[in-house]
Amino acid sequence: MMINLTGKLCRLREFHRADVPSIAFHANNKQVWRNLRDVFPHPYGQADARAWVKFNMECKGRPNNLAIEVAGEFAGCVGITPRPDVHRLSAEIGYWLGEAFWGRGIATEALGLMTDHIFATRDFVRLEAGVFEWNPGSFRVLEKNGYRLEGRHAKAVFKDAELADLVIYARLRPGIE
Ligand SMILES: CC(C)(COP(=O)(O)OP(=O)(O)OC[C@H]1O[C@@H](n2cnc3c(N)ncnc32)[C@H](O)[C@@H]1OP(=O)(O)O)[C@@H](O)C(=O)NCCC(=O)NCCS
Questions:
Q1: CA-to-CA distance for 73 and 13, rounded, in angstroms?
Q2: Which residue has the least CA distance to atom 37 on ligand 1?
Q3: Which residue segments constitute the domains of the chain, with CATH numbers given?
Q4: Measuring from each residue's beta carbon to the nearest atom of ligand 1, which residues come in under 6 Å?
Q5: What is the pLDDT of residue 46?
Q6: How confident is the model at residue 60 (pLDDT cuts 50, 70, 90)?
Q7: What is the Cα–Cα distance from 154 to 100, expressed in whole angstroms?
Q8: Residue with the nearest Cα to atom 35 of ligand 1?
Q9: pLDDT tens, residue by residue, 66-118
């Protein structure tokens, strides 16, 4: 079954091959990369986008990552990474948006749609996010979706040649608290 989660500003859907050029265009941006793990390439080329789409098309049926689409255009990505072992009922949630789409409430809506979708369709009891200390926009996106500030991992991150605290937010499955 195709996933289509529709909001007022954006919709979330699975990735397809036609997304490759737009992913490469919007992902190839240091302002995006600076707020993500180094596993997210920089520079970000067509081959990186092709690999990402292929990876996500292989887990069809129960995708962990969805494309954020705005007015029919690829705009960004929101996804989960399930945690292993005793953390298996937790997943990390992450998102990025092409810079052209920032400042319109789109990430807030996309995170809300994804959070509801994951709790409705999967067994996770906890969704968590680690945000670099210089990213207050992302703190707001999480706060506006009911994620709670749990603490800071002091100097846990070395990104873009800088040491930074990792700020931890989490939201629990409704009814668990
Ligand atoms: C962070 C990011 C997802 C935000 O997306 P967005 O669609 O612009 O966010 P929204 O418009 O939904 O909301 C942003 C909120 O943060 C606030 N904000 C933005 N920049 C801010 C800043 N520098 N300081 C304080 N607040 C800020 C906005 O005012 C808004 O809050 P408000 O509604 O209370 O006014 C986007 O900038 C992005 O993709 N950045 C690069 C990747 C990234 O950081 N991913 C998250 C990793 S944890």
A1: 11
A2: 102
A3: 4-172 (3.40.630.30)
A4: 32, 35-36, 94-97, 102-108, 129, 131, 135-138, 140-141
A5: 98
A6: low
A7: 32
A8: 140
A9: 999 999 999 999 999 999 999 999 999 999 999 999 999 999 999 999 999 99
- The residue nearest atom 29 of ligand 1, judged by CA position, is 137
Distance, CA of 111 to CA of 95 (rounded, Å): 8
For a substitution probing ligand 1, which of 10, 81, 97, 132 has the most ligand atoms within 8 Å of its CB? 97
* Token pair in block for residue 123: 């067994």
Q: What is the dihedral of CA 30, 28, 102, 108, to 10 degrees?
A: -100
- The pLDDT of residue 1 is above 90: no
pTM exceeds 0.85, yes or no: yes
58-68 CB burial, b ≥16 within 10 A, e <16: eeeeebebbbb
From 141, 147, 152, give the residue whose CB has the most ligand 1 atoms within 8 Å, as the site to mutate.
141
Long-range contacts of range 1-6, CB-CB < 8 Å, 24 or more positions apart? 1/61, 3/63, 3/66, 3/117, 5/66, 5/113, 5/114, 5/117
Q: Which residue has the tokens 């070395």?
A: 158
| 19 Cα: distance to centroid of ligand 1 (angstroms) | 23
